[in-house]
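Thread: Polyprenyl synthetase, structure

OP (GT): Posting the sequence first so everyone is looking at the same thing. Length is 324 residues per the record. Can we get the structure tokens written out before standup tomorrow? I want them in the notebook alongside the other entries.
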Amino acid sequence: MDKTELIKRPIEKELGEFRELFESSLESSNPLLGEVLSYIRKRNGKMMRPILVMLMAKLFGHINSSTLHVALSLELLHTASLVHDDVVDESDERRGQSSVNAVYNNKISVLVGDYMLATSLWHAAHTGKVELVELVARLGQALSEGEIIQLANISNRDFSEDIYFDVIRKKTAALFTASAESGALSAGASEEEVSRAADFGEMIGIAFQIKDDIFDYYESPELGKPTGNDMLEGKLTLPALYVINKLNDESVRELALRIRALKASKEEIASFVELVKREGGIAHAEQVMYEYRNRALQLLPASADEALRLSLTAYIDYVIERKK
């Protein structure tokens, strides 16, 4: 059986209800807004975060209206943040497709992103639980703070893995943390269970980002980006940081600083990519990724329903085995 089918099996009915809610949230009677929202809707991904919300709700109780609305709130917030990120990064593509700002323009992208943020908050309020509204608000803060830390880090002469993990906890991992935590909260889980769910989500989110960072070292038409694309944007991730600190070579550090400052040529970036591969950067990142995968598995309750345990295990494995 395909892993995605195994993941969805315990929540097939509720996932269908969620998709209907998601589709209806991205509609508008305004012609231009409706057109842009339709474009965003068609680019919609695998719904990995809403699926996690629903699986965690089922793990600790039952999926209810609050579960569906908070799952939608988080997905809209996530999508809006991607629309805004593409403007900030001046990116023309997102996962192999033209970004919203490339098809329309920056002004429209920012305004539509703002509209989606407002819609996200409306659905958070519709849960009827102030804890879930607070959770969505905290997530919005974390995502923005992560972006700011990442921008500030471009001028940093240190190559700290601690800063790297701080950024991804506030960006990618924060979304998975909030998804798992909100699912447990919506189902009425205990304080200890909610905390455990949040930790589970964070482990998955960190593994997810490390996998994304590994992708950057391989040419991939599926991802719609060339090798070293992150470095073209001045971003140095775990594989590179490991090698820079391992070698402690001044010429390597100077090249890394040039990459951060957006002064390195494509040829220099290509040679740096090969250096990172040759010196074990990918192997190190994969090892760390599997450590987080195993820590996530250990957080699953021993009393978990077998179908849910299989589904959540498949979810974790999908995150680290995916091809895009």
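GT: Both are above now. Quick notes for whoever picks this up: The domain at 3-321 is CATH 1.10.600.10 (Farnesyl Diphosphate Synthase). The chain is about 75% helix and 0% strand.
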